[in-house]
Amino acid sequence: MINTAALFSTAFLPGQAGFDTDAITGLAEWRLDVPALFKLFIGAGTQAVAWPIYSDGEDCPCVLAAPMEQAQASWQALSALMDKPRDAAAIVARSAISALLAGGQPWLILDCVQLIAHDIGTPEYAAGLEALRAEAQALHLALQRGEREALAPLLAAGAASPATGYWSATASAQLAEVEELDTQDVPFLQGLEVVGWEEDALCYEVSAGGEPDVAGLVTPYGRWIVPLSQRYVDLGVYYADDGWISFATAHAPDAHGVLDLNGTVVLPPSPGALYVISPHLVQRIAPDGASSLLRLPDGALLIDRVDNICQRDDGLIDIERQTDQTDDDDRRNVCGVIDATGKVVVPAAYSSVHDFGTKKKIAIVSQRIAGRFLFGLVNSQGELLAPCQYEAIDSATTSSPPRLRKNLIFAIDAQGLACMLTLDGKRAFTPLYPPAHHLRGVAVQSDFLYVVNDGMVWSMDFTGQLLEQFDTVENFKAAITAQLSESIGLGKKKPARRRSFTPAQILAKADREQLRALAAMLLLGDAALAARCVDITLEELAEDDPEEEYDGDTPEAACFFLLWSTAADVLGHGTTLDWKSVDEVPRIAQHIGLPALQDFRWTEREDGDAMAEGLAAIAAHLAPHQLRLVNLHGGEDTYYLGLVRAQDAATFSKVALQATLRPVVY
Question: Which residues, in sequence order, are bridge partners of residue 110?
Answer without folding.
Answer: 7, 64
